[in-house]
Amino acid sequence: MMNKLHLMNCMEGMKQFPDNYFELAIVDPPYGIRYDELQNKIAGSKRSQNGGTWKEYKKTKWDRSIPDGKYFDELFRVSENQIIWGGNYFIEHLKNTKCFLLWDKIQRDNRSDGEIAWTSFDRPLKVFRYSRADAYINQCDIKIHPTQKPVQLYRWLLQNYAKKGDKILDTHVGSGSSLIACIEEGFQYCGFEIDKDYYNSAQKRIEEIKAQGKLF
């Protein structure tokens, strides 16, 4: 099952692995804030940014609630360490930590200035500064998922919080950015995505990156 993106429910997928199989899980579960609806409202207003048009996403119910305690129990079972984006939404399921991470999106508008990740590491809080404009400048329509994060963010996480030889788990792959970072940084990975359309789009991105690697 390694070095693949699987079209399946992550709860079923994680059951297939023994305790602590993955050295690191980097996950971005639903925050329960209906972010796809917010993105579509922006698209409906014809608002543009950096010359690009805002993509309108299909109507789904994936961001209506957060995962329950069973998800976090299983995540902690199969992984030794975890980086959980949106940790501020899951406090009831997480332990105290001093090592929060902040993605500072640099741009200041009516949306959040950044996103917070909870981690299991005993390290100081760190900030990754990377502009949304740098990630998607003039390419808003290329963004395939409403909560898509830049590959550069995941590469920074791997460079600073993973060790050579670590196996990486992502339970909610979405756009595929995390797995692309694993490929580029030379890590084994396993990813799950339950939505067929997002799975297909992410798989296409991943295959394109692999093909580029073969060329060079």
Give the key terms:
eight-stranded mixed beta sheet; Rossmann fold
What is the secondary structure topology, with strand pairs?
Elements: E1 4-7, H1 10-14, E2 22-27, H2 35-44, E3 48-49, E4 52-53, H3 69-78, E5 79-85, E6 100-104, E7 114-119, E8 126-129, H4 132-136, H5 151-161, E9 167-170, H6 177-185, E10 188-193, H7 196-215
Parallel strand pairs: 1-10, 2-5, 2-9, 6-8, 9-10
Antiparallel strand pairs: 3-4, 5-7, 6-7
Helix pairs in contact: 5-6, 6-7
Task: Explain this structure.
With 216 residues, the protein is of the alpha/beta class. It is built from seven helices and ten strands. The strands form two sheets. Strands 1-10-9-2-5-7-6-8 form an eight-stranded mixed β-sheet. A two-stranded antiparallel ribbon has the order 3-4. α6 links the parallel β9 and β10. The longest helix has 20 residues. The chain is globular, with a radius of gyration of 17 Å. The relative contact order is 0.20.
Q: Output the number of helix runs.
A: 7
Task: Report Rg.
Answer: 17 Å
Taking the sheet with the most strands, its summary is: 8 strands, mixed
Q: Estimate the global geometry from the Cα principal axes.
A: globular
Mean pLDDT: 87
**Can you name the CATH architecture?**
3-Layer(aba) Sandwich
Across the major sheet, the strand order is 1-10-9-2-5-7-6-8
